[in-house]
Amino acid sequence: MLKYHLDEHLPLAVAVGLRRHGIDVTTSAEVDLLGSDDAAHLAYSIAEQRVIVTHDHDFLRLHAAGAEHSGIAYCHQDKYSIGELLPLLLLMNTCYSAEEMAGRVEFL
């Protein structure tokens, strides 16, 4: 089962929806990462083995530069509503293990 970390660009409602389905998820506010740089988010996600869910394309640049991470679930900010994003994250949870997501970017 995947564990997620939502960066500060994602609405709290995404975390609430995932938790209703029994998914382990943290938000930037909950773990005192609001306003932190992307490296801090990556360090947290590695330590906790969490897939970062983000709209921030800077994470894609870090991935391309070879930064270590536990997985990145990326979607453009205007692409999905919360109701459309939730099923995609739930599907990812059934399709991939934490080991399979390590170092992987999943474009939603």
* Coarse morphology: globular
Number of domains: 1
Strand order of the largest sheet: 2-1-3-4-5
Beta-sheet strand percentage?
A: 15-25%
Give start-end ranges of low-pLDDT stretches: none
Secondary-structure-derived class:
alpha/beta
Rg (C-alpha, Å): 12 Å
Characterize the structure shown:
By secondary structure, the chain is of the alpha/beta class. The protein has one domain (3-107). It is 42% helix and 17% strand. It has five helices and five strands. The longest helix has 14 residues, at 82-95.
Give a quick precis of the structure.
The chain has 108 residues and is an alpha/beta fold. The chain is built from five helices and five strands.
Task: Provide the fold topology.
Blueprint: E1 3-6, H1 12-20, E2 24-27, H2 38-48, E3 51-54, H3 58-64, E4 72-74, H4 82-95, H5 98-101, E5 105-107
Parallel strand pairs: 1-2, 1-3, 3-4, 4-5
Helix pairs in contact: 1-4
Provide keyphrases for this structure.
108 residues, alpha/beta, five-stranded parallel beta sheet, 17% strand, single chain
